[in-house]
Amino acid sequence: MNSKHQYVELNDGHFIPRLGFGTYKPQEVPNSKTIEATKIAIEAGFRHIDCAYAYQVEEEVGLAIRSKIADGTVKREDIFYTSKLWSTFHRPELVQSCLEKSLKKLNFDYVDLYLIHSPMELKAMEKCKDAGLAKSIGVSNFNRRQLEMILNKPGLKYKPVCNQVECHVYHNQRKLLDFCKSKNIVLVAYGALGTQRDKQWVDQSSPVLLDDPVLGALAKKHKRSPALIALRYQLQRGVVVLAQSFKENEIKENIQVFDFELTAEDMKDLDDLNRNYRYLAAEFGADHPNYPFADEY
Ligand code: NAP
């Protein structure tokens, strides 16, 4: 394990790098961009790559990772790769086949972490861990009630190691974070930079997170960018954070998140920005009984 990277121990004994590279891309962006950006990210020092069956770029991400393995930059075991089970594969007998489809596209033997993309049953996921196809299993977009449902399930074999949720200074998930910490579940933040403003999912009139004046003032104070302040905030509250970009300068900048520290007062100013604002509310699913965002947290 490369000591330059900071890791958090998961409740099953595996380690997750505290900074991850996000690979979701809007439809209009060509897939070749993903190959290029993922290679740049690995060269810049990212070791945690977040992807999903639904992003439809696992072939490209796999290609990029394997090319960085082939040229000696990394070994497979240096990379922490996350994939996610998509909602059309929730029937227990389909779970492993979705993971196997991802593995085939990636040309990998295993993923490091397999997440349920949105609230569902965990039993078939446990089987993927037992089969060695996923080192760790976790969840995404679960609220407290849904996490408790899983944790209280009779015969639960493996606790989810993490809950990957939208988390940034406008929605800092304080209560969910405290709950996850109390259960030894790592909170992984997506959209930490205000999400990609993909027309398909994000209201184009929503506030631009990185233009926030408090982030701007702290950036000036620390001689860093607002993006680095937003990422650093998450690390200092014990959150594993994902950062997406297709731009080489941004990717290289984001890895510098380990090079400086915010004060307690800075952290308080950032906490005060919270307004429980979601960029990705997935309102089309609001009528579904498992819609996770209707509860307070
Ligand atoms: P994000 O990480 O919040 O990034 C948003 C945008 O920030 C980027 O598109 C980039 O835009 C800009 N940016 C990045 N670095 C910057 C820098 N140093 N300076 C200025 N701007 C910078 O976006 P996200 O893709 O929504 O979330 C990250 C990852 O989380 C995804 O890629 C995906 O892997 C995961 N995710 C998971 C779920 C889930 O349901 N589990 C949902 C959403 C996302 P520009 O390139 O235009 O500058």
Q: Reading side by side through the largest sheet, how are the strands ordered?
A: 3-4-5-6-7-8-9-10
Q: Structural class, from helix and strand content?
A: alpha/beta
CATH architecture: Alpha-Beta Barrel
Quaternary form:
single chain
Number of strands: 10
Measured by DSSP, the beta-strand proportion falls in 15-25%
C-alpha termini separation: 35 Å
Proportion in helices: 25-40%
Q: Please, how many domains?
A: 1
Radius of gyration: 18 Å
CATH class: Alpha Beta
> What general outline do the C-alpha atoms trace?
globular
Major β-sheet annotation: 8 strands, parallel, barrel
Low-confidence residue ranges: none
Distinct small-molecule ligands in the complex: NADP nicotinamide-adenine-dinucleotide phosphate
The ordered H/E elements are: EEEHEHEHEHEHEHEHHEHH
What is the typical, i.e. mean, pLDDT? Answer: 94
Figure out the total of helices: 10
- Can you say what the CATH homologous superfamily is? NADP-dependent oxidoreductase domain
- Per the CATH scheme, the topology name is TIM Barrel
